Amino acid sequence: ASSKIGFIGLGNMGGPMAANLVKAGHEVRGFDLSQASLDSARADGVTIASSAAEAVKEADAVVTMLPAGAHVLKVWSELASLVPDGTLLIDSSTIDVDSARKAHDIAAARKLAAVDAPVSGGVGGAKAGTLTFMVGGTGEAFARAEPLLNVMGKRVVHCGTAGAGQAAKICNNMILGISMVGVCEAFALGEKLGLSQQALYDVASTSSGQCWSLTSYCPVPGPVPTSPANNDYKPGFAAALMLKDLKLAQAAANAVGANTPLGAEAAQLYSLFDGLGHGIEDFSAIIRLLRGKH
Ligand code: NAD
Protein backbone atom coordinates (compact mmCIF):
# COMPACT_ATOMS: atom_id res chain seq x y z
CA ALA A 1 0.00 0.00 0.00
CA SER A 2 1.14 3.53 -0.72
CA SER A 3 2.17 5.56 2.34
CA LYS A 4 2.78 9.23 3.02
CA ILE A 5 6.38 9.55 4.04
CA GLY A 6 8.21 12.57 5.44
CA PHE A 7 11.94 12.40 4.62
CA ILE A 8 14.38 14.71 6.45
CA GLY A 9 17.99 14.79 5.22
CA LEU A 10 18.27 14.38 1.44
CA GLY A 11 22.07 14.23 1.13
CA ASN A 12 24.32 11.67 -0.54
CA MET A 13 22.46 8.79 1.10
CA GLY A 14 19.03 10.24 1.90
CA GLY A 15 18.48 11.60 -1.64
CA PRO A 16 18.67 8.25 -3.44
CA MET A 17 16.83 6.46 -0.59
CA ALA A 18 13.92 8.91 -0.90
CA ALA A 19 14.01 8.46 -4.70
CA ASN A 20 13.55 4.69 -4.28
CA LEU A 21 10.51 5.26 -2.04
CA VAL A 22 9.03 7.48 -4.78
CA LYS A 23 9.71 4.81 -7.42
CA ALA A 24 7.86 2.27 -5.27
CA GLY A 25 4.78 4.47 -5.41
CA HIS A 26 4.95 6.21 -2.03
CA GLU A 27 4.14 9.88 -1.61
CA VAL A 28 7.36 11.40 -0.26
CA ARG A 29 7.61 14.90 1.18
CA GLY A 30 11.20 15.88 1.81
CA PHE A 31 13.16 18.58 3.54
CA ASP A 32 16.85 19.45 3.79
CA LEU A 33 18.79 22.55 4.81
CA SER A 34 20.84 22.47 1.59
CA GLN A 35 19.40 23.86 -1.64
CA ALA A 36 21.48 21.48 -3.79
CA SER A 37 20.00 18.46 -1.97
CA LEU A 38 16.48 19.86 -2.41
CA ASP A 39 17.01 20.43 -6.14
CA SER A 40 18.21 16.91 -6.84
CA ALA A 41 15.46 15.34 -4.69
CA ARG A 42 12.84 17.36 -6.58
CA ALA A 43 14.23 15.99 -9.85
CA ASP A 44 13.76 12.49 -8.41
CA GLY A 45 10.06 13.10 -7.75
CA VAL A 46 10.20 14.06 -4.07
CA THR A 47 7.71 16.78 -3.12
CA ILE A 48 9.76 19.51 -1.46
CA ALA A 49 8.40 20.95 1.79
CA SER A 50 9.24 24.42 3.09
CA SER A 51 10.26 23.06 6.52
CA ALA A 52 10.67 19.80 8.42
CA ALA A 53 7.32 20.52 10.10
CA GLU A 54 5.64 20.84 6.69
CA ALA A 55 7.23 17.58 5.49
CA VAL A 56 5.89 15.48 8.37
CA LYS A 57 2.50 16.92 9.22
CA GLU A 58 0.38 14.25 7.50
CA ALA A 59 2.96 11.46 7.44
CA ASP A 60 2.33 7.77 8.13
CA ALA A 61 6.09 7.39 8.56
CA VAL A 62 9.08 9.71 8.85
CA VAL A 63 12.65 8.82 7.83
CA THR A 64 15.64 10.86 9.00
CA MET A 65 19.08 10.57 7.33
CA LEU A 66 21.25 13.16 9.07
CA PRO A 67 24.94 13.64 9.91
CA ALA A 68 25.07 12.91 13.67
CA GLY A 69 23.19 12.31 16.92
CA ALA A 70 22.69 16.01 17.74
CA HIS A 71 20.91 16.60 14.41
CA VAL A 72 18.64 13.59 14.93
CA LEU A 73 17.66 14.61 18.48
CA LYS A 74 16.95 18.17 17.36
CA VAL A 75 14.77 17.07 14.43
CA TRP A 76 12.95 14.29 16.34
CA SER A 77 12.22 16.64 19.29
CA GLU A 78 10.70 19.13 16.89
CA LEU A 79 8.67 16.70 14.84
CA ALA A 80 7.41 14.44 17.67
CA SER A 81 4.84 17.06 18.66
CA LEU A 82 3.78 17.69 15.03
CA VAL A 83 3.20 14.26 13.49
CA PRO A 84 -0.19 12.56 13.59
CA ASP A 85 -0.80 9.93 16.29
CA GLY A 86 0.47 6.55 15.18
CA THR A 87 3.25 7.86 12.94
CA LEU A 88 6.28 5.57 12.69
CA LEU A 89 9.70 7.24 13.12
CA ILE A 90 12.73 5.69 11.38
CA ASP A 91 16.26 7.05 11.85
CA SER A 92 18.75 5.63 9.34
CA SER A 93 21.66 7.95 10.20
CA THR A 94 24.76 6.46 11.81
CA ILE A 95 24.77 7.96 15.32
CA ASP A 96 25.99 7.14 18.82
CA VAL A 97 24.06 4.49 20.73
CA ASP A 98 23.26 6.90 23.56
CA SER A 99 21.59 9.45 21.23
CA ALA A 100 19.74 6.63 19.46
CA ARG A 101 18.24 5.54 22.81
CA LYS A 102 17.33 9.16 23.64
CA ALA A 103 15.58 9.41 20.26
CA HIS A 104 13.53 6.30 21.15
CA ASP A 105 12.61 8.00 24.46
CA ILE A 106 11.37 11.08 22.59
CA ALA A 107 9.13 8.86 20.47
CA ALA A 108 7.94 6.80 23.46
CA ALA A 109 6.89 9.95 25.33
CA ARG A 110 4.42 10.57 22.47
CA LYS A 111 3.55 6.86 22.14
CA LEU A 112 5.01 6.85 18.60
CA ALA A 113 6.55 3.67 17.16
CA ALA A 114 10.25 4.12 16.42
CA VAL A 115 13.27 2.23 15.09
CA ASP A 116 16.97 3.00 14.76
CA ALA A 117 17.84 1.58 11.34
CA PRO A 118 21.37 2.50 10.24
CA VAL A 119 22.65 1.14 6.95
CA SER A 120 25.68 -0.32 5.28
CA GLY A 121 26.24 -0.35 1.55
CA GLY A 122 27.20 3.28 0.90
CA VAL A 123 25.98 5.63 -1.80
CA GLY A 124 26.08 2.85 -4.43
CA GLY A 125 23.80 0.69 -2.29
CA ALA A 126 21.49 3.63 -1.59
CA LYS A 127 21.10 4.28 -5.34
CA ALA A 128 20.64 0.62 -6.25
CA GLY A 129 18.25 -0.04 -3.33
CA THR A 130 20.54 -2.77 -2.03
CA LEU A 131 21.39 -1.40 1.44
CA THR A 132 21.54 -3.60 4.53
CA PHE A 133 19.46 -2.20 7.41
CA MET A 134 20.34 -3.03 11.02
CA VAL A 135 17.28 -2.36 13.12
CA GLY A 136 16.65 -1.68 16.81
CA GLY A 137 13.18 -1.35 18.33
CA THR A 138 10.15 -3.34 19.43
CA GLY A 139 8.89 -6.22 17.32
CA GLU A 140 5.80 -4.20 16.51
CA ALA A 141 7.81 -1.17 15.31
CA PHE A 142 10.09 -3.46 13.30
CA ALA A 143 7.11 -5.13 11.60
CA ARG A 144 5.80 -1.73 10.51
CA ALA A 145 9.21 -0.48 9.32
CA GLU A 146 10.21 -3.62 7.43
CA PRO A 147 8.16 -3.10 4.22
CA LEU A 148 9.52 0.43 3.80
CA LEU A 149 13.09 -0.62 4.53
CA ASN A 150 12.74 -3.44 1.99
CA VAL A 151 12.08 -0.79 -0.67
CA MET A 152 15.43 0.91 0.08
CA GLY A 153 17.47 -2.20 0.84
CA LYS A 154 17.83 -5.90 0.17
CA ARG A 155 18.54 -7.11 3.72
CA VAL A 156 16.73 -5.99 6.85
CA VAL A 157 17.93 -7.48 10.15
CA HIS A 158 16.10 -7.01 13.47
CA CYS A 159 19.03 -6.74 15.91
CA GLY A 160 17.14 -6.16 19.16
CA THR A 161 15.60 -3.36 21.20
CA ALA A 162 16.26 0.41 21.12
CA GLY A 163 19.81 1.20 19.97
CA ALA A 164 20.63 -2.36 18.85
CA GLY A 165 20.81 -1.32 15.19
CA GLN A 166 23.43 1.33 15.95
CA ALA A 167 25.30 -1.14 18.17
CA ALA A 168 25.47 -3.68 15.32
CA LYS A 169 26.59 -1.01 12.86
CA ILE A 170 29.53 0.26 14.94
CA CYS A 171 30.64 -3.26 15.91
CA ASN A 172 30.65 -4.27 12.22
CA ASN A 173 32.53 -1.16 11.16
CA MET A 174 35.06 -1.61 13.96
CA ILE A 175 35.84 -5.06 12.51
CA LEU A 176 36.14 -3.44 9.07
CA GLY A 177 38.51 -0.66 10.22
CA ILE A 178 40.73 -3.10 12.10
CA SER A 179 40.76 -5.67 9.29
CA MET A 180 41.62 -3.05 6.66
CA VAL A 181 44.60 -1.86 8.70
CA GLY A 182 45.67 -5.50 9.11
CA VAL A 183 45.47 -6.21 5.37
CA CYS A 184 47.36 -2.97 4.57
CA GLU A 185 50.12 -3.82 7.07
CA ALA A 186 50.53 -7.25 5.47
CA PHE A 187 50.88 -5.77 1.97
CA ALA A 188 53.34 -3.12 3.24
CA LEU A 189 55.42 -5.83 4.96
CA GLY A 190 55.22 -8.13 1.92
CA GLU A 191 56.51 -5.33 -0.33
CA LYS A 192 59.57 -4.81 1.90
CA LEU A 193 60.19 -8.57 1.86
CA GLY A 194 60.16 -8.56 -1.95
CA LEU A 195 56.89 -10.53 -2.15
CA SER A 196 54.65 -9.72 -5.12
CA GLN A 197 51.22 -8.30 -4.29
CA GLN A 198 49.54 -10.90 -6.49
CA ALA A 199 51.35 -13.76 -4.73
CA LEU A 200 50.30 -12.46 -1.31
CA TYR A 201 46.75 -12.06 -2.58
CA ASP A 202 46.63 -15.55 -4.10
CA VAL A 203 47.77 -17.11 -0.84
CA ALA A 204 45.88 -14.98 1.71
CA SER A 205 42.60 -14.91 -0.24
CA THR A 206 42.43 -18.71 -0.09
CA SER A 207 43.96 -19.08 3.39
CA SER A 208 43.12 -18.02 6.93
CA GLY A 209 43.91 -14.35 6.23
CA GLN A 210 40.84 -14.17 3.99
CA CYS A 211 38.46 -11.30 4.80
CA TRP A 212 36.26 -8.71 3.05
CA SER A 213 38.97 -6.01 3.23
CA LEU A 214 41.21 -8.34 1.20
CA THR A 215 38.89 -10.06 -1.26
CA SER A 216 36.25 -7.37 -1.95
CA TYR A 217 38.19 -4.21 -1.22
CA CYS A 218 41.85 -5.08 -1.79
CA PRO A 219 43.94 -1.99 -0.86
CA VAL A 220 46.47 -2.45 -3.69
CA PRO A 221 45.58 -2.18 -7.40
CA GLY A 222 45.41 -5.36 -9.45
CA PRO A 223 44.10 -8.40 -7.59
CA VAL A 224 40.48 -7.12 -7.21
CA PRO A 225 39.76 -4.92 -10.25
CA THR A 226 36.68 -3.26 -8.72
CA SER A 227 38.42 -2.07 -5.53
CA PRO A 228 39.01 1.72 -5.07
CA ALA A 229 42.80 1.14 -5.16
CA ASN A 230 42.37 0.72 -8.96
CA ASN A 231 40.70 4.13 -9.18
CA ASP A 232 43.32 6.22 -7.35
CA TYR A 233 41.52 5.56 -4.03
CA LYS A 234 38.43 7.59 -4.90
CA PRO A 235 35.69 6.57 -2.44
CA GLY A 236 34.03 4.14 -2.04
CA PHE A 237 33.84 4.66 1.66
CA ALA A 238 35.71 7.81 2.67
CA ALA A 239 38.37 7.62 5.38
CA ALA A 240 36.61 10.46 7.25
CA LEU A 241 33.45 8.33 7.51
CA MET A 242 35.47 5.36 8.76
CA LEU A 243 36.99 7.67 11.39
CA LYS A 244 33.50 8.81 12.40
CA ASP A 245 32.34 5.21 12.92
CA LEU A 246 35.52 4.19 14.79
CA LYS A 247 35.04 7.17 17.12
CA LEU A 248 31.43 6.11 17.75
CA ALA A 249 32.68 2.61 18.60
CA GLN A 250 35.24 4.07 21.03
CA ALA A 251 32.62 6.31 22.66
CA ALA A 252 30.36 3.30 23.15
CA ALA A 253 33.24 1.14 24.44
CA ASN A 254 34.19 3.81 26.99
CA ALA A 255 30.57 4.21 28.09
CA VAL A 256 30.16 0.51 28.90
CA GLY A 257 33.75 -0.32 29.89
CA ALA A 258 34.47 -2.66 26.96
CA ASN A 259 38.10 -3.41 26.16
CA THR A 260 38.79 -2.58 22.48
CA PRO A 261 42.54 -1.93 22.11
CA LEU A 262 42.67 -2.61 18.36
CA GLY A 263 39.57 -0.51 17.76
CA ALA A 264 41.30 2.31 19.66
CA GLU A 265 44.47 1.90 17.59
CA ALA A 266 42.50 1.90 14.32
CA ALA A 267 40.72 5.09 15.43
CA GLN A 268 44.13 6.69 16.14
CA LEU A 269 45.50 5.70 12.73
CA TYR A 270 42.45 7.01 10.85
CA SER A 271 42.57 10.20 12.92
CA LEU A 272 46.20 10.72 11.92
CA PHE A 273 45.39 9.96 8.26
CA ASP A 274 42.42 12.34 8.27
CA GLY A 275 44.52 15.04 9.96
CA LEU A 276 47.05 14.81 7.12
CA GLY A 277 44.29 15.77 4.68
CA HIS A 278 43.35 12.30 3.39
CA GLY A 279 39.80 12.15 4.82
CA ILE A 280 38.20 12.44 1.38
CA GLU A 281 40.10 9.42 0.02
CA ASP A 282 38.81 5.87 0.26
CA PHE A 283 39.58 4.28 3.64
CA SER A 284 41.76 1.63 1.96
CA ALA A 285 44.23 4.45 1.07
CA ILE A 286 45.49 4.15 4.66
CA ILE A 287 48.05 1.75 3.14
CA ARG A 288 49.95 4.91 2.15
CA LEU A 289 50.27 5.93 5.80
CA LEU A 290 51.36 2.44 6.80
CA ARG A 291 54.03 2.40 4.07
CA GLY A 292 55.30 5.66 5.55
CA LYS A 293 54.81 7.39 2.18
CA HIS A 294 51.97 9.87 2.17
P1 NAD B 1 25.33 14.14 3.78
O1 NAD B 1 26.11 15.17 4.50
O2 NAD B 1 25.47 14.00 2.30
O3 NAD B 1 23.75 14.36 4.07
C1 NAD B 1 23.25 14.82 5.30
C2 NAD B 1 22.17 15.84 4.96
O4 NAD B 1 21.50 16.26 6.15
C3 NAD B 1 22.74 17.10 4.31
O5 NAD B 1 22.14 17.28 3.03
C4 NAD B 1 22.35 18.21 5.29
O6 NAD B 1 22.02 19.45 4.65
C5 NAD B 1 21.14 17.61 5.96
N1 NAD B 1 20.79 18.20 7.26
C6 NAD B 1 21.59 18.43 8.33
N2 NAD B 1 20.87 18.95 9.35
C7 NAD B 1 19.60 19.04 8.92
C8 NAD B 1 18.39 19.49 9.51
N3 NAD B 1 18.34 19.96 10.77
N4 NAD B 1 17.25 19.45 8.77
C9 NAD B 1 17.27 18.99 7.49
N5 NAD B 1 18.39 18.55 6.88
C10 NAD B 1 19.54 18.57 7.59
O7 NAD B 1 25.64 12.75 4.50
P2 NAD B 1 25.34 11.26 3.97
O8 NAD B 1 26.54 10.72 3.32
O9 NAD B 1 24.05 11.25 3.26
O10 NAD B 1 25.20 10.48 5.36
C11 NAD B 1 24.02 10.54 6.16
C12 NAD B 1 24.16 9.57 7.31
O11 NAD B 1 24.35 8.25 6.79
C13 NAD B 1 25.37 9.84 8.22
O12 NAD B 1 24.98 9.58 9.55
C14 NAD B 1 26.41 8.85 7.72
O13 NAD B 1 27.34 8.49 8.73
C15 NAD B 1 25.54 7.68 7.34
N6 NAD B 1 26.12 6.78 6.32
C16 NAD B 1 26.76 7.28 5.22
C17 NAD B 1 27.32 6.42 4.29
C18 NAD B 1 28.02 6.93 3.06
O14 NAD B 1 28.71 6.14 2.39
N7 NAD B 1 27.89 8.21 2.70
C19 NAD B 1 27.20 5.03 4.47
C20 NAD B 1 26.51 4.53 5.58
C21 NAD B 1 25.97 5.43 6.50
From TrEMBL:
**Which GO MF terms are attached to this record?**
3-hydroxyisobutyrate dehydrogenase activity; NAD binding; NADP binding
Q: Where is the active site?
A: 169
Q: Please give the catalytic activity noted in the UniProt record.
A: 3-hydroxy-2-methylpropanoate + NAD(+) = 2-methyl-3-oxopropanoate + NADH + H(+)
What's the short name of a Pfam family annotated to this entry? NAD_binding_2
The biological pathway it contributes to is: Amino-acid degradation; L-valine degradation
- PROSITE patterns from the entry? 3_HYDROXYISOBUT_DH (PS00895)
The record's annotation in Gene3D superfamilies points to: N-(1-d-carboxylethyl)-l-norvaline Dehydrogenase, domain 2, NAD(P)-binding Rossmann-like Domain
Provide the family line.
Belongs to the HIBADH-related family.
Record's protein name: 3-hydroxyisobutyrate dehydrogenase
Which source organism? Labrys okinawensis
